[in-house]
Write a structure and sequence with these properties.
It is a single chain. The chain has 1 helix and 11 strands, in the order αβββββββββββ. The strands form 3 sheets. Strands 3, 4, 7, 10 and 11 form a 5-stranded antiparallel β-sheet that branches. Strands 2-1-5-6 form a 4-stranded antiparallel β-sheet, with no helix packed on it. It starts with a helix and ends with a strand. It is 7% helix and 57% strand. With 122 residues, the protein is mainly beta. It has one domain.
């Protein structure tokens, strides 16, 4: 059995729940996620300080509301746009129709490290 850091992180189920851009995300190390657009260049490192919960092999740490000294380090992979959503509004018998489209601006990030009190968990 391999003992790579990624395999060890998945075996003990290390994850963090963070708050960014008004929503909460469940982040695991060495995985990529699409978040709302972050104002950073490609290959930049972004640190999220609003960590609500951290789970690792030692146990679960819950913040009130945030964990002090905890952070999640993200690497920006690319900026992209989400799938197109069609919004169609119609009032029957009134000849009123409105069609609108929307594509959300997203940033694809890779979780590099989850840190609590200066100690990297993964």
């Amino acid at each position: 059995m391999s003992s790579s850091p990624a395999a060890a992180a998945e075996a003990n189920g290390t994850y963090a729940i963070v708050e960014t851009s008004g929503t909460q995300f469940w982040l695991q190390p060495n995985r990529y996620y699409d978040l709302d657009r972050i104002h950073a260049e490609v290959d930049d490192t972004v640190t999220l300080e609003n960590v609500l919960l951290v789970k690792d092999a030692a146990g679960t740490t819950l913040g009130h509301p945030f964990i002090e000294g905890a952070s999640v380090e993200l690497k920006v992979l690319e900026h992209r746009r989400g799938q197109k959503i069609i919004v169609y509004k119609m009032r029957p018998k009134k000849k009123t129709r409105r069609k609108n489209g929307h594509r959300q601006e997203l940033t694809r990030v890779m979780v590099q490290a989850i840190t609590v009190a200066g100690k990297a968990l993964a």
